[in-house]
Every structure is written in C-alpha cells, then in structure tokens.
Design brief:
Layout (H helix, E strand, L loop, with lengths): L2 E5 L11 E3 L3 E9 L2 H4 L3 H7 L2 E3 L8 E6 L3 H10 L3 E7 L3 E3 L30 E2 L8 H10 L13 E6 L13 E6 L21 H10 L16 E6 L12 H14 L4 E4 L1 E2 L6 H18 L3 E5 L18 E7 L17 E4 L4 E3 L3 E3 L4 E2 L40 E2 L5 H18 L5 H10 L6 H4 L17 H11 L6 H10 L88 E3 L6 E4 L2 E4 L2
Parallel strand pairs: 1-23, 8-18, 9-11, 9-12, 10-11, 12-14, 14-15, 15-16
Antiparallel strand pairs: 1-13, 2-7, 3-5, 3-6, 4-5, 17-18, 17-21, 19-20, 22-23
Helix pairs in contact: 4-8, 4-11, 5-8, 8-11, 9-11
C-alpha cells in the first residue's frame, strides 16, 4: 500500500479596532458628596444613615461611590433635596475601542494580521502588503477572556493541551520550549536532544515547528511572535510518511500508533496539517476518530483539526478531513476571499486567514505571515556576536533571514509559511481558547460553536445555502471573539448587554442573528472590569508598528542569503493521480501584471513503497 503524507501550509496574525461610542448605562451605584455635618458621625455611619454602603474607592474622602437601597435615580434625587451633591453613576459615553485588542509584547506582534487587522499593518522591512482588513478576531477573544476573569496576559491557554502530529519540531526554540510538555519521535534520526533532522531544507524537518508556532508560540515573552493559544501546552508527535521505526508496519498501524499516543497523552485538540493517501483504510480511521470524539477527555471528546489541502479540488476523497467528527479548514486571504488552491466540497467546515505565496517583484509580499523556524547556531557564531551572512543559522527553511525575534540571531523565524497547513493550527489554537471559556464543552460542541459563529465572508462568491454552508467557504471564516462568547454562554456564563454591544461593534454580525442561544440573557449590568478599561494583570511592553511576521509559502529571500534552493521547498500535497498538486495551483490576479505567484514545488520521493510529499 502506498503510504503518503501530504503536508499543507498555515499562518497567524494580529488585529486592531476602530473607536465607537459606548452608550450611557446606569451602573447601580451613586456618587455622593458627603456633607461635613454627616461626616461628623464618621464616614461609615454617615453612609449607613443614608441607607448606603461603600461600593468603590475614590481618592477624595468626602466623596463616596455607594450602593444604596432603592432605585439609584430616585435615591440620588432624594439626596440632592437633602443638600447633598449626588448623581447616579453611569458608563460615560466617550470615544473608546469597542473591544480593545489585547496586544502582547512579542516583537512581531503587529505583523500578525491574521490575528488582528485594521487594514494598516506595517512591517519592519517595509515589504509586507496586507490587501484587506479581514482577520480571525483572536486578540479580541483574548481581551474578552481577560475581561471575564478567565486569563491573564501571560496565561492565555495555560491549562489547555494541544496535540500536533507533524514532520519535525524544534523543541529547544526560544518561543516554543516552555510550551512543549511531551514529545515522541515516530520517524528517523534527529538532531541530538531535539526533534528535527539535521539536514537543512529536507522534508522531515521544519514544518512541525512552523505549525506549532501558529498554534502555540509562547506569548508575552518580549521575543518573536505568539500563537493563537500563547500559553497552551503542546504534545508533539514527529512522523514521516513511511513507518521508519518498524518497516513491517502498515500505514494504518503506523498512523494508528501515532494518533493513539497523542490521544493517551491527553491532547484536547489535535492538529494535522497534512492528509493521508486516498487508499487509507477509511472505515478503520472513521471508527477511530469517532472513538476519540466520544471517549477523549473523560467522555467529552477530543477534536481533530485537519487542513483541507491545497490542490484546488474537491477533497471528498480524503477520509480524514471529511470525517463528520473532525474539523476541516480551508484558506482565505486578508480580504476574506478564498485562495484558489484551497480545497472545497460539501464537508468543508471552516476557513481561516493565511498567506498564499503572492508577491510583486522583490518589494512586496502580500499577506505575509511569520512563524517559528528550526534553529541551529553554527560554530562560527559565538555567543554575543553579531550575525552576518554566511555565519548564521544552518537549519530550517529561512536560515539566513536577518529578522531574528529580538535577540539578534538569524533564522529562528520565517515569513514563508502559508496555505491550509498554516490555516489549520490557527483554528486549533482558537478551539483551545473555547475550552478556556468552558472546560466541559464536548468535541461536538466545540466544532458546532466554531462553525456557527463563523463570519459569512465573501457572500457573493461563497453562495451560502439555507443552512449557512458553502462548498467553497464552509460555514465561513473563523471568528475567535464570537466563538469564545458562545462557549462562555453555553457554559452558563453571562454576557452583559454592554459586552454584547462591544462585541457587535468589534465584529459586526454577518448573519440574521448572532446571539440566538437557548436560555441566554443579556442583562443591562456591566461586569466589574469593562472591556475598554482593563487593569494590567501583567505589565505589557508597548508594541510599535516597527515589527515583523512571517509565512510559509515560497517567498524568496531578498536579504542576500543563500536560500535560492529553499524557495521551492514548500511542503505540498500529492497529486492523487489527477496531476494537480496541492500547493501549486496559484492563479495570478489578472488585474495586476506585476503580480507573481511563487508556487510550492512538489517534492516526492519513493521510499519502500511510500510517497513522501512535503508542503
């Protein structure tokens, strides 16, 4: 049996918000200026005589922010008649962010347009061009979790477990090492004390490191970038297309052993930015995935996220990504438009923003994103030395690029990751955020929330049906903010009328009703910490726009590095006998003659009857 792994590409980003008016709303408290006569009996006694108690701290002792019996408007009027200066407290109408994006202090934060995007994203080298203002609303989702008291800046996802099955991992990477908690090598030789092969640019090398960066690169550590779930723990299984550990294993046994290990390690969400051969035993894995979805997490279920693939075809042949208990992910750009390479079909679930390898000459890289890359410091580069061309990192996909994540070392990050391999881990990270909001969600509920809260982007092209589904766009582009809100509500949490308004301003509803949850109420009472006035639980370093980010599709290095050969080394999907490779079907924009697409070259090696295909 042919044993094939088709690896697809993926990416991440940040976003910003426009200011909006916050309507005046009563808080239930009353401002009272206490008279000298009243204060003679003591402050507490004075308030008690008025039927009030302190409900807030003010600098001036002769003023009180009090909670009083009765209606605050009527009681305030009573106090005025008695000679006090008083008025009911309101949420003042002012020009504020609807929901402030929660930026962490990572160096390339503002280049992660797929996380947050106001259409004005800049880059350190000036070569990033973001075509639109679409994004996944991840930074707003972080802010909502913080407002609800669920997370701190440095602890977003700290109780969550993500499993990643892929080709190689740099478990010593500065932006990943604190999040890796368990790993196992199901493939060939690796670098000592690490989980990737030592040969730069080879197939079983850097793809897993890039996937891990999109899903769970460590956030708020003043270096590099962040993943969608920046404090998530990662369980990493390094695989190959053929069972190199035991040549007698079949593809079914090989994949089964990998999936089972990740499952037994306790992964709540499992990311697979790759696909199987069409000849895989669909019946067996169908039952296996249903078992995971039913029995994982103590009976709540483990959700597996699959990239849909990059061959621009109907992927109904893929029994992994089209299984009803898994979640399939396609790719859109910063304008919310589907890339032509992104696979389609009746079982497509959701889209996520990513790069597509699009550039104009050597000066503009459209929708470029950053992620982590394998790193090996060469002997010529002593501690504290300044990196130079020819004496820099010798591993990964972009070893000689000068953008280094804040510590001066070249090669730890790459802007060449793209396609559906990059889209899937973004969704995996967001799925983990839902469990931060509601730990008892079942795998089925996680999937339902993600697809039901997705934005209906590009409706004319998508042609969504009466059920809200499109064969080209699934149920729409993922919306992390609305998904987290829905998870919170379904867990019995309250979204106040104020928060509901803030969410609607930050992410306008794209369907008839975005708040139709059974039993949900939206009381006109604010939470203690307003979304627009969050206390700093962790000290954040200001992020300027002079930052940098990356993706995985073939962007040639313009820095003078020796990456010419690597540019064609994008991991790709097999042609499955129809002559169409999964990541090379880039269609140029007919309106721009200068626009070039850099296709990822299909790299296929026959080994012991197995076809290894890279992204």
């Amino acid at each position: 049996m042919k044993k094939i792994i088709a690896c697809f590409t993926f990416f991440t980003l940040f976003f910003m918000l426009e200011g909006v008016d916050v309507p005046n709303r009563l808080t239930g408290r009353i401002f009272i200026k206490l008279t000298d006569k009243c204060l003679k009996t003591g402050r507490n006694s004075c308030l008690k005589s008025l039927g009030c108690v302190d409900a807030g701290k003010l600098t001036l002792n002769n003023w009180a922010l009090a909670k009083c019996s009765g209606d605050p408007v009527k009681r305030s009027d009573e106090f005025v008649k008695k000679g006090f200066i008083s008025r009911p407290e309101r949420f003042v109408s002012s020009k504020l962010y609807s929901i402030d994006p929660l930026y962490l202090n990572d160096v390339y934060a503002h280049e992660q347009w797929n996380f947050h995007n106001n259409g004005n994203v800049t880059s350190a080298d000036g070569k990033l061009s973001v075509k639109g203002d679409d994004h996944a609303h991840i930074l707003e989702a972080w802010q909502l979790l913080k407002t609800l008291g669920v997370v701190t800046d440095s602890g977003i996802g700290k109780d969550r477990l993500i499993g990643i099955i892929d080709d190689g991992f740099d478990i010593l990477h500065d932006d990943l090492k604190d999040n890796f908690i368990s790993w196992k090598n199901f493939s060939g030789p690796v670098e000592p004390e690490n989980m990737f092969s030592e040969t730069a640019g080879t197939v079983a090398n850097f793809h897993g490191t890039m996937v891990a960066g999109v899903a769970a690169a460590r956030g708020n550590n003043s270096a590099g970038l962040t993943g969608a779930c920046p404090a998530c723990s990662v369980i990493a299984a390094r695989m190959d297309a053929d069972p190199t550990i035991d040549p007698e294993l079949t593809a079914e046994e090989y994949f089964d052993s990998i999936f089972n290990w990740v499952y037994e390690e306790g992964a709540e969400i499992i990311n697979c930015s790759w696909g199987p051969d069409a000849d895989i035993n669909a019946e067996y894995f169908g039952e296996l995935f249903s078992y995971f979805a039913t029995n994982g997490r103590g009976g709540l279920g483990t959700l597996i996220v699959f990239a849909s693939g990059n061959s621009g075809e109907d992927f109904s042949w893929n029994p992994f990504a089209t299984h009803p208990d898994t979640l399939s992910v396609g790719a859109t750009d910063s304008a919310g438009s589907r890339y032509d390479f992104s696979n389609y079909g009746t079982m497509l679930d959701i889209m996520a923003p990513t790069a597509g390898g699009e550039k104009s000459g050597t000066t503009k890289y459209f929708d470029r994103i950053w992620t982590t890359d394998n790193f090996l410091r060469p002997a010529c580069l002593a501690e504290g030395a300044v990196p130079t061309n020819g004496c820099s990192d010798q591993a990964g996909w972009t070893p000689n690029h000068p953008m280094a994540g804040g510590d001066g070392w070249w090669g730890k990050y790459s802007y060449r990751f793209s396609h559906t391999s990059s889209a899937a881990p973004l969704v995996t990270g967001v799925a983990a955020l839902l469990l931060e909001a509601n730990q008892v969600l079942t795998a089925k509920e996680i999937k339902e929330i993600l697809i039901n809260t997705a934005d209906k982007v590009s409706p004319m092209d998508a042609n969504y049906d009466s059920n809200g589904h499109s064969n080209k766009y699934g149920f729409g582009r993922i919306n992390a903010l609305r998904a987290v809100a829905a998870a919170w509500i379904l867990g019995g949490g309250t979204i106040t009328a104020g928060l509901k308004d803030d969410i609607d301003e930050s992410s306008p509803c794209t369907k008839e009703d975005c708040w139709n949850f059974e039993g949900a109420e939206y009381p006109d009472v604010e939470t203690e910490n307003d979304l627009n006035n969050q206390p700093d639980e962790d000290e954040d370093t200001e992020i300027t726009d002079d930052t940098y980010f990356h993706d995985d599709v073939s962007f040639p290095d313009e820095d003078g590095g020796n990456n010419e050969n690597n540019d064609a080394d994008a991991l790709t999907v097999p042609d499955n006998g129809n002559g169409e490779n999964s990541e090379t079907e880039n269609v140029p924009d007919e309106k721009n003659d200068d626009l070039q697409y850099v296709p990822d070259e299909l790299v296929e090696e026959e080994k012991a009857g197995c076809s290894v295909v890279r992204i």
